[in-house]
Amino acid sequence: MYNPSVASGGANTEFGSRRYAIEVTGFGQGSFSGVTVSAVRRSGTTIIPVPYSRMSSEIQRISRLGGKIESIRLLDAAGAAALAAPSSASPKSVPSSSTMTPETPAAKPKKHSDVPVNTYRPKTPFVGKCISNDALVGEGGIGAVQHIKMDLSGGDPLLRYVEGQSIGIIAAGEDAKGKPHKIRLYSIASTGHGDDLDDQTVSLCVRQLEYEDPETKEKVKGVCSTFLCELKPGQEVNITGPVGKEMLLPPDEDANIVMLGTGTGIAPFRAYLWRMFKAEERKLNPDYQFKGFAWLFFGVPTTPNILYKEELEAMQAEYPENFRLTYAISREQKNAEGGRMYIQHRVAEYADELWQLIQDEKTHVYICGLRGMEGGIDEAIAAAAQKDGVTWADYQRDLKKAHRWHVETY
């Protein structure tokens, strides 16, 4: 169930009273005039203690002053006191094991500058191997969708990625002109640690494309999607990337994450949800223990087409106060007008609630799936915003500038 207290402002919760240490580089001696909290110098690094309620505004202020955020760490009372120590102390003398959450490369908040991009390119792809290829569509469902796990071990450099990114796949063989097939991008469906939690795999959620040739009227299968969906364990795969920074999760543990997806658009959302709620994954990320509110709207044609259904519903059962799951099953459910239930109809149904959530500065909205789904979503939320005298197009423009409205459609 949706918990209004979780979705309210951070200052009204137990998390709102927490303090964090923002480690910043790039400040000159006279740069502190715009920083309203006490700043501690540590041999080239500025440590700024900030209450959670002012985290967002402080980060924006640091950016305006030209600072670069190196890390954000949780403080307790002892840690806050340690920051007041003489500035001759080195950065390593700031308490870590007892007063701050342990900092590991996998657990650090993801800054865009740290996100790997194009480690492997088309002319020099990484050669991975298929580990497993499992059907996701249940009996009686429509089409074929596969969960494909691939081995990344042995790469030099390591093909590292983060949740929300994509990789490119080059299908084996050549096209009709004797050239290598074109790269096709696929959203990654696993966390940065991979399904096996060993940093050695990457997983994709792929629908086998099938369409009618407009001239011959024959059924044609997509080259790359068919290649992937028919992969056998041990078979090699040419991989490029990773790419993309549009769909990254915010580092804030108390954020509200609204996900609107159709079909294989579930891929990045599965990665997010694993990071948020999977017990073994959470153990690997001590600096990211999600305590916010996540709401997934998932549109599919039939119940057997609900991809990762058991995973999703198990997470909802374990975290009922933090995860809400809403299906739009077009061929089984009816909308308010008696027609098929698509995701935009579900959004319209909950538009007032979503609008209130979106106005919280901790809320991020992610849309992934078929191109064109955005229009109905915008229309539904615009109607709710209009009740408050707000023009949705203008408000949405500000959301995009604040990097709180994320879209990846195809």
Structure summarized in a few sentences:
With 410 residues, the protein is an alpha+beta fold. 23% of the residues lie in helices and 26% in strands. Helix 8 (343-349) packs parallel to helix 10 and helix 9 (351-358) crosses helix 10 (373-386).
What does this structure look like?
The protein has 410 residues and is α+β, with helices and mostly antiparallel strands. The protein folds into 3 domains: 4-103, no CATH class; 126-243, Elongation Factor Tu (Ef-tu), domain 3 (Beta Barrel), CATH 2.40.30.10; 256-409, Nucleotide-binding domain of ferredoxin-NADP reductase (FNR) module (Rossmann fold, 3-Layer(aba) Sandwich). The protein contains 11 helices and 17 strands. The chain has helices at residues 4-7, 55-64, 77-82, 223-229, 266-277, 279-284, 309-318, 343-349, 351-358, 373-386, 392-401, and strands at residues 19-25, 40-42, 45-51, 68-75, 126-135, 145-151, 166-170, 184-187, 201-207, 210-212, 219-221, 236-243, 256-262, 293-300, 323-329, 363-369, 405-409. A hairpin with a 6-residue loop joins strand 10 and strand 11 (219-221). Helix 8 packs parallel to helix 10.
